[in-house]
Design a protein that fits this description.
single chain, 3 domains, 27-stranded parallel sheet, 7 helices
């Protein structure tokens, strides 16, 4: 019997596994075909759409530059002294205007979008440009400055400076120097300018933690190189080392305060409600919740207002303090109406302690008062304090103190005085001083309404040539008024003579002569623009950084009259 080899029992072959692999391969093949189809279709579509995409990009770029060109044209028109009220629609400068490859509409309004007033100092230019259905809109803010005689470009009260000091400047950490946002002149891009008339950098002490908003720094011609280098310090958004020394002089007693009728030979205390006759007094104290109305001119030795007393100013009031002025213990100076104003001419020192001037008595009597209590605009130009010159009895070194939660809304014009703001006090307006020290927790809020827009800080303005040198006669005029004039209120008339009656100059702000090709004459600094609002808010641009080219070649008058086309050429 033969042994037969045993056979191994085999089960069925795995045919299903092979079928699964064939199914995956089929799925992958279908995916590859689908992907290739999609990619091919996209490629073909992109080839078909590429011209349209390119055309859209060109149209968007063209629309942008058309809008920019139309904006430049609008600024140029405003530089010609264009009277917006003479247009049929003052808010629309041009409509459907062909320029730089696009069609633009230019609107000129105030900040609220309304037609600007005929005497507006600031407008918003909005340009909408369209190219092939692609639309671009740009906005810029334009500061307007009507032409003025050269002599009037110098403000003897130096209103263009938030602070101007001749001796030293100290700003402690925790102090704030900012533009006053409640001022009607406050807009994006307005600055608070700090000016110094001293030479040594050691007299400048600004703490790194002091709070500044849109602050510029200006030093005079005699400043050391180290002091001039502070113009570019990180605390400031700009400024300049000026080619001249800014003149700061004291005032004389005005004629209105001389020759007054004698009212009292003895010191007087008033503690009741009454009106006080204009005239010549000895010491005058107003106290104990008294409410005294002043109207006219007064001359006193010491004037003290204290203990909840209120002095109400009616009409134009002049007060000559032959010695000191003190406002203390919740006292107040307020105004009867918007047309009332007061000027103090002080021989020696000024103190405001735990009191308020320039506001309603409810603020002065509030023991919790602070800078944030002022939520309504009060015009600081209505209250001015002048330090008297030595020839009119002024002290050589007066002290001015704003202290203990005091609120001061006004202007201090006291070259040579030592001015200190402390005790959580707040000054709204502006200050000229000998030395100035603002301590931690105190504020100075500058009102831009004091700035006439044509002074020493305007490096592109009419006081300087195009290479930033003083125009003819300016240096001699400054030397004359600082050496021989004792009354800053009489400077303007003198300057008119020293500067040839204030005629036109060839400086940066002089009128641009008419081009032989018919270019409209215009004045470069009559309208200066900056981007608005987004870039201006982010970068805090100033108007001077956006001055339009003086070589914008276009006949503005003919364009506006005919509604025609223009090409913008920048030289």
């Amino acid at each position: 019997m033969h042994d037969q080899p045993q056979r191994r029992h085999e089960g069925p072959r795995p045919r299903a596994a092979r079928r699964d692999r064939r199914g995956v391969a089929m799925l992958l093949a279908l995916c590859a075909v689908a992907t290739a189809t999609i990619v091919t279709a996209a490629y073909v579509a992109s080839r078909e759409n590429t011209p349209d995409i390119g055309a859209n990009a060109v149209e968007a770029a063209t629309a942008k530059w058309s809008a920019e060109s139309a904006g430049d044209l609008a600024v140029a028109a405003l530089q010609t002294g264009l009277d917006l009220s003479s247009l049929s629609d003052p808010s629309t400068l041009v409509s459907s205007f062909d320029i730089a490859g696009g069609t633009a509409t230019v609107s000129v309004t105030d900040a609220n979008g309304d037609p600007p007033a005929s005497d507006a100092s600031q407008v918003v230019v909005t340009v909408t440009a369209n190219v092939g259905g692609v639309t671009t809109t740009t906005q810029r803010i334009v500061n307007l400055q009507p032409p003025v005689p050269l002599a009037e470009c110098i403000d003897p009260e130096l209103g263009e400076f938030g602070v101007f000091t001749t001796g030293s400047l100290r700003i402690d950490g925790g102090a704030a120097v900012v533009p006053w946002n409640l001022s009607p002149a406050h807009t994006v891009g307005r600055t608070v300018d700090l000016g110094v008339g001293f030479a040594n950098v050691s007299d400048l002490n600004i703490n790194a933690s002091a709070a500044f908003v849109s602050a510029q720094f200006f030093a005079g011609a005699k400043a050391s190189s180290a002091l001039k280098s502070q113009v570019g310090a990180a605390s400031f958004v700009g400024g300049a080392a000026l080619p001249v020394d800014v003149p700061a002089i004291r005032a004389a007693v005005p004629s209105a305060a001389k020759g007054l009728a004698l009212r009292s030979l003895v010191n007087m205390t008033v503690n009741s409600t009454r009106s006080l006759a204009s005239g010549y007094y000895q010491d005058l104290t107003i106290r104990d919740s008294a409410v005294v109305t002043l109207s006219g001119a007064y001359s006193v030795i010491d004037l003290v207002i204290e203990r909840d007393a209120v002095v109400r100013i009616q009409g134009e009031v002049v007060i000559h303090c032959r010695d000191d002025l003190s406002i203390l213990s919740k006292a107040a100076i307020e105004f009867v109406d918007a047309n009332s104003r007061v000027s103090f001419f002080v021989a020696d020192s000024f103190t405001i302690n735990d009191a308020a001037v320039g506001v309603d008595r409810s603020i002065s009597r509030n023991t919790s008062r602070w800078g944030g209590s002022i939520t309504t605009y009060y015009d600081p130009s209505r209250l001015k304090i002048y330090a008297l010159s030595a020839s009119d009895g002024g002290s050589s070194s007066p002290t001015y103190q704003i202290q203990k939660n005091a609120i001061f809304i006004g202007a201090i014009l006291a070259p040579g005085a030592s001015v200190t703001v402390d005790g959580s006090s707040c000054a709204f307006g502006r200050i000229t001083s000998g030395s100035f020290h603002i301590k931690s927790g105190c504020w100075l809020l500058y009102d831009p309404a004091f700035d006439k827009g044509q002074g020493f800080t305007k490096i592109n303005g009419p006081l300087y040539t195009k290479d930033f040198q003083p125009v003819a006669g300016l240096t001699d005029a400054i030397a004359s008024i600082t050496s021989g004039v004792t009354d800053l209120l009489g400077v303007t008339g003198l300057l008119g003579g020293l500067l040839g009656g204030g005629g036109e100059t060839e400086g940066g702000g002089g009128a641009i002569s008419e081009n032989p090709d018919g270019v409209t004459p215009r004045t470069a600094d009559a309208a200066t623009s900056s981007t608005w609002p987004s870039l201006a808010i982010a970068l805090e641009e100033t108007a001077d950084t956006g001055v339009a080219s003086t070589g914008l070649l276009v006949n503005v008058d003919s364009v506006l009259e005919s509604g025609g086309s223009a090409d913008i050429v920048i030289k």
